[in-house]
RNA sequence: GCCGGUGUGAUGGAAUUGGCAGACGUGCUGGACUCAAAAUCCAGUGGUAGCGAUACCGUGUCGGUUCGACCCCGACCACCGGCACCA
């Protein structure tokens, strides 16, 4: 058959769409399977081939599952709120709504051209009213549950985007959107209390099937540490200075305290502090430093002694000085530490610079040279002296602290509460009203959605004020509680809000009574397999697991973990081996590839180009191999019925079915396709193929190159759509050959391969091996000291 | 610094997890077809030596375990990803 992709691909895409071939059926009695891929942000540039690779993995899995008789939900949608669209709107004067609609249209047509088997009846758009009303609804639920709060705090602020960023969005001290340096700024902003779920998020990881590195990254991000909170008295005021430490066993070695420059104790005692001006000046310098500068100067410790306040060690009664330094962060622990310079590198560097005492309390180091962080016998520590096990000394110290009421065991997490706001236009409005009498008042649920008003000017105000603040008709409102004049919140939600629950909406996308019907949720959840990018494991994944766990606690979803399994694909790099980007001019447009090679070649190539989980550079000439492969499949029709059926082809076919079936489950598409190519080589060698064999091959190919498969299926008179035909079964007995090739080694070195019956016994194998002409020269005149026989694989003769 | 990962021909990558290293694809070389090119088909293609059968060497480096190591263990080197003054 001539392989005319340009005519067959649109033809089958239309038939699939007309017949609703890939619609998921709620409550169907077939077993359900929910496969999820990360929905795209519809940017103006359109999709690039990286998107195609990201979706092709579970596309193949979904198609295989359908053929295996599952009721498959494989949805797609658009995560359309976000800054790039808004920035584009500012530049061009086009409204973000119009820009978004255009981009979605473009993405949709690109996706359809590739022939993905998405359920197009369930498409969602996070910026649509009947979607974001439920985003707001969940926010209100969180508000009522006490998980939403406002706080004046040091926040990550991007001066270029004029927007407050969450911790997750400013990883590495760079703005996630424009990559400029993030600065610290004091501002009153919205937070979601994700830290309340830190332990649950950590525990939940134990029962899900995530890639090990995905799991590890989340564990690190949550960053649990166990230690103790200890109260130090301030001699002059009688106040308590509370610190967190992981090493309460070194309490006798504390020679000074360090508190964060922003620690509230300073302002509370301005009159008692002798050098408050110097402290203020230091604090100011720190605030101006970018995150980058703060971490660049790691070696050089800075700080100022707090004159007029002295801390008292609760176990030794010793009086010790207090310093402020920016190596202690207000955002972790209590913003104050006990410094043990003998056993902590940072404390040691600080002590050396400021001339503070260094008292060793664990044997093993040399305080002249540096801090000793290893284990050893406890010394200089009163009742702990002589203990050699860290666990024991920590336990003993904790017991003592508890008994005295000056400390107790505690847990800390690196994860911080989620700064949940953007001072921009293109996002979900936060459904809260500020009333002069009643304070913060949530909108009643019935008033949702709180619509995003139309505006002319999307520019954010100087100092990070939302564009919504400039619209009196939006801002001025009545208090839902007392009916008096009030003002609306003008911040919008961050980009990650809509994507935190989108997988739930696919289950019931048109429901206007609830975010999704409870029975439908019960039928479809959890997501059986979720695939996406590594860049989302510490943001989107954590956020959405948090929302889901909250909804579970509220009784709104039937399971506590949303994703049963999570994998990740690797990037497609440009032909130059660099990451694809517009500025480098190395982006490959899938439309161009479809035009020249067809969707089936594109699909096959993105899966064949390398290990699915690793990055691999685009290589057009390598793609030609996939084109040849599909052409050779199309040409198989010429061989059908020619000559006598070949036993070799039959064996090779059944082995291939087995391998392809197994490889798909492990995302090893490259070897699955290689196996099919190999099968083709065998068939062309044999020059013959039966009708039945051809039918199996077509179905085996279908998940990868469905258009060609449908065309061939039709040509052999297959019933219905190939996409819904039965997945090929292999016959185990046919995959086992009657005789096998066995390697013969002498002293571990390969000397020959011999052909043996498949069920050959040890004696027979050894005899055949020893008699082989290629083996004889290596054993003649020597003693065989050991004979190894690995059935079906190898003979190894050890000679002396 | 900490955590995770990777290292294999000219090249993208395979290797049933300790059992024939280099599957499959690309590229390259030679040949067929063609006036010619493209496409297609056939043969070859890790290195060294040899006309040859064959021999020796070969999975980042060095060492170890084993009848046998790309695979396991120890030390080191290089690169990639994540976190990072986290107390």
Topology:
Layout: H1 5-19, E1 32-37, H2 49-67, E2 71-73, E3 77-78, H3 83-92, H4 96-114, E4 124-125, H5 129-144, E5 148-158, E6 163-165, E7 183-192, H6 198-204, E8 209-210, H7 212-222, E9 224-234, E10 240-245, E11 256-259, H8 264-268, H9 276-288, H10 291-296, E12 304-312, E13 319-324, E14 336-339, H11 345-354, H12 390-404, E15 407-413, E16 418-419, E17 432-435, E18 439-442, H13 472-475, E19 476-478, E20 485-488, H14 502-505, H15 518-524, E21 529-532, H16 540-553, E22 565-568, E23 572-573, H17 590-597, H18 599-608, E24 616-617, H19 620-634, H20 647-665, H21 669-686, H22 691-701, H23 706-715, H24 732-735, E25 739-746, E26 749-757, H25 762-771, H26 776-779, E27 784-790, E28 794-799
Helix pairs in contact: 1-23, 2-18, 17-18, 18-19, 20-21, 20-22, 22-23
The structure holds one RNA strand of 87 nucleotides.
What does this protein structure show overall?
There is one protein chain. With 800 residues, the protein is an alpha/beta fold. The protein has 26 helices and 28 strands. Helix 18 packs across helix 19 (620-634), helix 20 (647-665) runs antiparallel to helix 21 (669-686) and helix 22 runs antiparallel to helix 23. The protein binds one RNA strand of 87 nucleotides through helix 7, strand 10, strand 14, helix 11 and strand 24.
């Amino acid at each position: 058959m001539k392989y005319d992709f340009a005519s067959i691909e649109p033809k089958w895409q239309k038939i699939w769409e007309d017949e609703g071939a890939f619609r998921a059926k709620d409550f169907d009695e077939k077993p359900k399977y929910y496969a999820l891929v990360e929905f795209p942000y519809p940017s103006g540039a359109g999709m690039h081939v990286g998107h195609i690779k990201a979706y092709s993995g579970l596309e193949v899995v979904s198609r295989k599952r359908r053929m295996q008789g599952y009721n498959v939900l494989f949805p797609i949608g658009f995560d359309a709120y976000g800054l790039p669209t808004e920035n584009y709107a500012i530049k061009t004067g086009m409204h973000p709504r119009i820009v978004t609609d255009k981009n979605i249209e473009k993405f949709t047509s690109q996706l359809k051209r590739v022939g993905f088997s998405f359920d197009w009846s369930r498409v969602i758009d996070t910026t649509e009213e009947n979607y974001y009303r439920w985003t707001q609804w969940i926010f209100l639920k969180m508000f009522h549950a006490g998980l939403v709060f406002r706080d004046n705090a040091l926040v990550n602020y991007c001066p270029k985007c004029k927007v407050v960023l969450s911790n997750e969005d400013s990883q590495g001290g760079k703005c996630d959107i424009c990559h400029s340096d993030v600065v610290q700024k004091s501002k009153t902003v919205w937070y979601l209390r994700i830290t309340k779920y830190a332990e649950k998020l950590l525990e939940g990881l134990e029962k899900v099937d995530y890639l090990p590195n995905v799991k590890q990254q989340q564990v690190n991000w949550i960053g649990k540490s166990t230690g103790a909170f200890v109260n130090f008295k301030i001699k002059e005021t009688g106040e308590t200075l509370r610190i967190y430490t992981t090493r309460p066993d070194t309490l006798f070695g504390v020679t000074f305290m360090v508190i964060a420059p922003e620690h509230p104790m300073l302002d509370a005692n301005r009159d008692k502090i002798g050098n408050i001006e110097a402290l203020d000046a230091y604090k100011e310098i720190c605030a101006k430093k970018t995150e980058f500068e703060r971490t660049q100067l790691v070696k050089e410790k800075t700080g100022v002694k707090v004159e007029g306040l002295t801390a008292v060690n609760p176990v030794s009664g010793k009086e010790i000085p207090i310093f402020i330094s920016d190596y202690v962060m207000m955002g972790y622990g209590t913003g104050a530490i006990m410094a043990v310079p003998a056993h902590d590198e940072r404390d040691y560097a600080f002590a050396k610079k400021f001339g503070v005492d260094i008292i060793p309390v664990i044997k093993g180091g040399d305080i002249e040279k540096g801090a000793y962080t290893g284990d050893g016998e406890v010394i200089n520590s009163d009742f702990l002296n002589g203990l050699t096990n860290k666990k024991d000394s920590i336990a003993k110290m904790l017991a003592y602290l508890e008994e005295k009421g000056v400390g107790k065991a505690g847990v800390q997490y690196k994860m911080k509460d989620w700064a949940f706001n953007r001072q921009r236009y293109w996002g979900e409005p936060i459904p809260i009203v500020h009333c002069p009498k009643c304070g913060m008042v949530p909108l009643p649920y019935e008033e949702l959605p709180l619509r995003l008003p139309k505006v002319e000017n999307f520019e954010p105000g100087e100092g990070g004020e939302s564009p919504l603040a400039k619209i009196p008709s939006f801002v001025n409102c009545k208090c839902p509680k007392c009916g008096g004049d009030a003002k609306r919140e003008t911040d919008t939600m961050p980009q990650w809000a809509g994507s935190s629950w989108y997988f739930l909406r696919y289950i019931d996308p048109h429901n206007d009574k609830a975010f999704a019907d409870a029975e439908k949720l019960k039928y479809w959840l959890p997501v059986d397999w979720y695939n996406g990018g590594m860049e989302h494991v510490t943001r989107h994944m954590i956020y959405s697991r948090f929302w889901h766990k909250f909804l579970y606690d509220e009784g709104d979803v039937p399971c506590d973990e949303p994703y049963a399994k999570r994998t990740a694909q690797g990037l497609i790099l440009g032909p130059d081996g660099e990451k694809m980007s517009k500025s480098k001019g190395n982006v490959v447009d899938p439309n161009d590839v479809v035009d020249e090679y067809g969707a089936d070649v594109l699909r096959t190539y993105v899966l064949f180009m390398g290990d699915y989980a690793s990055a691999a550079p685009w290589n057009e000439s390598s793609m030609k191999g996939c084109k040849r492969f599909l052409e050779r499949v199309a040409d198989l029709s010429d061989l059908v019925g020619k000559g006598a059926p070949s036993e070799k082809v039959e064996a090779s076919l059944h082995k291939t079915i087995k391998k392809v079936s197994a490889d798909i489950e492990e995302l090893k598409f490259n070897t699955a396709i290689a196996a099919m190519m190999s099968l083709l080589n065998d068939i062309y060698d044999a020059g013959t193929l039966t009708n039945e064999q051809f039918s199996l091959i077509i179905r085996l190919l279908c998940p990868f190159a469905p258009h060609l498969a449908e065309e061939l299926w039709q040509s052999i008179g297959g019933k219905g759509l190939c996409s819904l035909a039965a997945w090929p079964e292999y016959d185990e007995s046919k995959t086992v050959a009657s005789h096998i090739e066995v390697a013969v080694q002498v002293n571990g070195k390969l000397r020959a391969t011999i052909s043996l019956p498949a069920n050959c016994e040890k004696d027979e194998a050894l005899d055949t091996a020893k008699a082989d002409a290629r083996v004889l020269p290596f054993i003649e005149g020597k003693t065989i000291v050991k004979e190894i026989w690995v059935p079906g694989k190898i003979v190894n003769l050890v000679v002396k």
